[in-house]
Design a protein that fits this description.
Elements: H1 4-15, E1 20-27, E2 36-44, H2 61-71, E3 77-82, H3 84-90, H4 92-108, E4 114-119, E5 130-133, H5 141-164, H6 170-173, H7 179-188, H8 199-205
Parallel strand pairs: 1-4, 4-5
Antiparallel strand pairs: 1-2, 2-3
Length: 209
């Protein structure tokens, strides 16, 4: 059975005055280190995307980067970037709310007649018409685009951080709690990129085993 939000999305596209869809997705919310990224991508309402476009989590790194190369330029997008200090100070929920709004407003300035589609079930404080659709990053092409563009943007940044802070496997772990990342934490301790409010990092700082 088709998800009711997806039906509502299609009806909204058919009945509304929309010229574009702005898809929005986050990347890095569960990472222990590195930035939180929210990407908003604007595409025409009838845009289907390049072949193979999907939720970034369902794609290999090679496929994501190939799709990124095809879309980076032809597809307008904005990225709201929040570092670990911001996440620690504001909390994840508030940081996500602010980041979603910043990314969307950046695109609405150029594409005001857009329906905004956000991945997930959270209702962010947007005044512009929008739909929160669970698993939209695998259902709506605009959100798929945002998922890939945001993910690759963040991954490339983590590769650079791996050079600045070697030993945490940031190039491959991209800040998530992989085994290699945990080995680096045990050996080197906490870096400036780590989110000190997250439980695994907090335990290390507190000296817990």
């Amino acid at each position: 059975m088709e998800h009711p939000e997806l039906i509502r999305y299609r009806k909204a596209i058919e009945k509304g005055p929309w010229t574009h869809v702005i898809g929005v997705d986050e990347c890095g919310a569960g990472a222990w280190a590195g930035p939180l990224v929210v990407c908003a991508a604007a595409v025409p309402v009838d845009w289907v995307g390049p072949e193979g476009l999907n939720d970034s989590k369902k794609l290999t790194r090679k496929k994501r980067e190939a799709l990124f190369a095809l879309m980076d330029g032809p597809v307008p997008y904005t990225v709201a970037h929040s570092g670990s200090v911001t996440v620690d100070m504001m909390g994840l929920g508030k940081t996500l709310d602010v980041s979603f709004r910043q990314a969307v407003e950046g695109m609405l300035y150029f594409f005001p007649k857009s329906l905004v589609v956000l991945d997930g079930v959270l209702h962010h404080d947007l005044t512009h018409p929008h739909i929160c659709l669970p698993k939209a990053d695998g259902l709506v092409p605009a959100v798929m685009a945002a998922s890939v563009l945001g993910k690759v943007t963040r991954d490339l940044e983590m590769v650079e951080y791996d050079r600045l802070y070697p030993g945490y496997d940031f190039a491959k772990s991209v800040g998530y709690g992989t085994a290699a990342h945990q080995v680096g934490l045990k050996k080197l301790g906490v870096s400036p990129l780590h989110r000190r409010s997250y439980a695994p990092i907090k335990k290390i700082l507190e000296g817990a085993p």
